[in-house]
Amino acid sequence: MPHHITPTRLAVALPIIVLALAAFWPALFSSQNPLTGQPSEYLTAPSAHHWFGTDQFGRDVFARVIYGSFSTLSSAVLAVSVSLLLAIPAGLLAGLGSPRVERAIRACADIVLSIPEIFLSLSIITLIGPGAIHVALAVGISQTAGFVRMIHTEVARVQATEYMEAAIGIGGTFSQVVLRHVLPNSLTPALALASLRLGTAILAISTICFLGYGPPPPTPEWGLMITEGRDYLSTAWWITTFPGLAIIFSAWTASLVSHAIRSKP
Amino acid sequence: MTQTCLSIRDLDISYTRHGSTHQALNHVSLDLHAGEMLALVGESGSGKSTLGRAVLGILPPNASVQHGSIHIGAHNVTHLSERAWRQIRGKKIALIPQDPAHSLDPVRTIGAQLAEALRPHQSSFLKRSNTRAEAIALLDQMGISRPAQRLGQYPHELSGGMRQRVLIAAAIAQRPALIVADEPTSALDVSVQVQIMALLATLRRELGTAILFITHDLALASEQTDRVSVLNHGVICETAPTRQIFSAPKTAYTQRLIANLPVFHQTPASVPDLRTPTPPDVIKVTNLGYSYAQTTRSGYRHAMQNITFTVPKGRTLGIVGESGSGKTTLLRCLLGLITPQAGTIELLGQDPSRLKGQALRTLRCKVQFVYQNPHVSFDPRYSALKALEEPLINSEQHNPAQRRKLIDDVLQKVRLSPTLLARKVSALSGGQAQRLALARALLCQPEILILDEVVSALDVSIQSEILTLLENLQKDLGLTYIFVSHDLSVIKRLSHEVLILKNGEQIEYGKTEQIFSKPMTDYTKHLIASIPGLTSSPQAAEHS
Amino acid sequence: MIRYLFTRFLHALFVLWGAFTLSFVLLQVMPGDAVLVKFQDPELGLSPQQIADMRATYGADESAITQYAHVLGRTLHGNLGYSIETGLPVGQMLHAAYPTTLRLAIVSFTGALAFAAICCALAILLSGNPVGRYLAAAIGAIPGITSGIPVFWLEIVAIQLVSFHWKLIPVVGLSGWSAVLLPGLALAIPISAPLAQVFMAAAHRVEALPFIDVLRARGVSPLRILYAHILPNALPPTLTVSGLVFGEILAGAVVTETVFGLDGLGQLAQQAVASQDVAVLQAIILISVSGFVSIGFASEIIQPLLDPRIGRSARQRKY
């Protein structure tokens, strides 16, 4: 199938490329140092030299936002990977296993889903302690139950289709049918959910970092930057505003990707 | 004659999709007089539904009227505003929709919906006792029992036929002079279809309502109607009195449509030569029974019981049953998807419920199933080629070159062009997809084919082609068929023996000829009488 | 019907028990124990004997199973234990904190509902109009963007604009409902996104059903079709996200109460995490799970009333 570059595809691809470049090659965007600033230039408003202004230590906010993307994005990817890694086997087991296994897994998922995700993440953090990777793990584990339920539903849906019945009818073994039809047809929606969950993971991670359980200062992290900038709210709006916009931008990009996966024929 | 209540002149309608335009109707002209019933017949894609929607002013946003005019009575409604349309709809023109199951609001009561149909511009319902009385009278007129009680019920509590009666009641609520009936019976069982057609005829006689009857079924169009218009690819190719269309069709297209009707298919099913000894039975079903556990106190509900039949090799058993007759349960038992609680099944000498692993898979290949809707029986991600390769890969006996050869051979058998192989199954037409489904079944080298309503979703001309294909395949390959259909005329054409199911019981079983000429039960007689176009043509002739 | 509700009720109790057990395992069993972590701090200068006494007081020196039985037993008796941080009974702390959170939840939920309803009604009504379609599409895209706004950031911006810049509502010195007005409304914007998205998707599905065309062909006005037919049909699927919305409001409360300095359950939870005050955190989890489960139970009771097709097998047939 030929892949043309259409305006829609470009519109989806562009934000992803920008985010990926910012995360892995931040020097491309900013030559300033995100960790050390010039104390003489503290709290200066956005200008040609400092696009997003400087913070209370004279650090360039633009550089910090760019360098911060690695922390947030990699944590979000780690969180969603953890969820998928745990949820795919559980969801498939629930969908393909015996009714007893199915009931057991569904009951577990029901229990975990009843606890609001933020409390679950915070509980896990009390257990394993704060830090960037711990936050990602906590958020990932908290999101797992939703994935399990979703994959289970999808597997059950595919199993009830006539094409599954037909695939068994033409002599396919159980494992052949699962590999050829169940997995590809049920995991596409799971993938769409995964990219949507990337957005919620970004929000959850920055929220927990905002509350102060993420990496310690002076790490450039969007949620943490907003906490630090709160005290200078009335005089230096730029310290909090730009990291927030960066979070919105990345969450919105994730929803674009999810939409693109779902609408793929 | 009488006054004209619908007049369409030189109507052109086109759809715009992704920048390209598609001409749905081309210079269509049509007149409908008061009290007249005109059948608008066309196959799928002919533009018949577009015409129906245009007359009601409910075309989708991407459709536009480019030329011509529509008059309802004295009103020119071609380019009417939404607001002005609302004064006409319901009062002067009404719709009887295609699918009664989805044409009523599922969360409002029948009473509320009828009240809205009676007074669409007022909001306080049923409080006014005369609205309630009118609604009851309407339901009574439709032949619905206990009408007062029905007002409090929800659509899902009524049967399909009953829902369609409610919709007809809503349509005539404000006594419009014109009704557009868009395939009003295509979603209903045959016996209900007859009742609805009779109801339409009564309405027309008693209220003098003109009816534009849109259908794909030429045989059905022969009933009750005064005139027939044949629509082909957006062009009306013939409009003539009903009797004349059937006795002396003018255009080649109409002639072909009539020739393809199974009812008018004169050659009986290739009757087996009775002199040769009867071949051995390959399917033996004895006293089969299955019941579903129910949650309410009534305990078990019998889906079917005491089903007994045999099918000899190379013959066809036709199974007839309306919805709820237990035919789906029977087929699922035959396929080994569910295990019957009573009785035995023997396919090619083996009981599928006793087999496991490789032996079961081998038997499954020998007994192939073809579905009513071919598109959903293929993995949506698969191309036609990949779909055909799957059974060959399963059998693990062929290298790629051999597989290609077998696929080319089978395509020849089902008369499908190899150029279609690269396409996704969803991009194929209904007829093509059904041929592909047959091809996939044949690649398993089956001995028995179970055909579940395989032609019901297809246009008449495609239907006829598939039936001919099935006849030829049976002759060439010696296949045994179980052919399930609600359409008796199709059953008659293909089957050697017929089994009639009702409420899970087998009420008649015998040679096709015998059942059609001397039906034993009233139900069978009723079914045969319900075949459109067979018995009622004389009535239609009387009318005109 | 009664029987069905009874099974659902048992399921709800089971989920509650499961969540209790899970939070116990997470918080009290795994890392040594909280008392040890708390009081081993050399700055407190407690002797090993004192620590052992403390542990005995909090029941931390017993085996996990005994502790579990003990905690479950006292919780069933309505005793939620004592806070390690303040030494107060947890029940008393919750009692003092819940009114603020409840008020916040009510304001934000009402605001979210209103915001979602306005968005949806506009999007549907405008979509019938050839020019309005583009505007409708733009409105339809709003929830996708608002769902990505971090609550804490939005609230900081709100404080900056509403309180500092426009000086409409002061940040400090408020109590009761006026204290939760600005935080509640700010929280309502992201909360409304899932509501609006699910409702709009449901409404578009209903709109595409054949009966809507039948109604149009009957001369029913678009406004009436919207409120008398699309709305009642799209409501039941929207109810299914009520549990999710509840969770979002609680998550929002943690952040909001921190940002605005409100003394609610969210603030309490935040402090409990910071000081590893497990009894408090577990009690808050138990309360939120009860809330979640009751909302789910309530929506299961309401669903069949809104959609007669749901649970019909369990209902008695009238004929």
Features:
heterotrimer, A: 265 residues, mainly alpha, 9 helices, 0% strand, B: 544 residues, alpha/beta, Rossmann fold, 20 helices, 26% strand, disordered C terminus, ATP-binding (chain B)
Give an overview of the whole structure.
The complex is a heterotrimer of chains A (265), B (544) and C (319). Chain A is mainly alpha-helical and 265 residues long. In chain A, 71% of the residues lie in helices and 0% in strands. Chain A has helices at 7-24, 61-96, 99-114, 117-128, 132-159, 162-169, 174-211, 222-229, 238-262. In chain A, helix 2 runs antiparallel to helix 3, helix 2 packs antiparallel against helix 7 and helix 8 (222-229) runs antiparallel to helix 9. The mean pLDDT of chain A is 85. Chain B has helices spanning 48-56, 82-88, 110-118, 129-141, 147-150, 160-172, 190-207, 218-221, 242-247, 252-260, 327-334, 357-366, 384-395, 400-414, 430-443, 460-477, 488-494, 512-517, 522-530, 537-543; strands at residues 4-17, 20-33, 37-42, 63-72, 75-76, 93-96, 178-182, 210-215, 227-232, 235-241, 281-293, 300-312, 316-320, 342-347, 367-370, 448-452, 480-485, 497-502, 505-511. In chain B, helix 13 packs parallel to helix 15 (430-443). In chain B, the strands form 4 sheets. Chain B has a 6-stranded mixed sheet. In chain B, 36% of the residues lie in helices and 26% in strands. Chain B contains 20 helices and 19 strands. In chain B, strand 9 and strand 10 form a beta hairpin. Chain C is mainly α and 319 residues long. Chain C has helices at residues 2-29, 34-39, 48-58, 64-76, 90-127, 132-146, 151-165, 177-207, 210-217, 222-239, 242-260, 265-274, 278-306. Chain C is flat, with a radius of gyration of 24 Å. Chain C starts with a helix and ends in a 13-residue tail after the last helix. Chain B: GO terms for molecular function: ATP binding; ATP hydrolysis activity. Chain B: Residues 8-258, 283-528 form the ABC transporter domain. Chain B: Its main location: membrane.
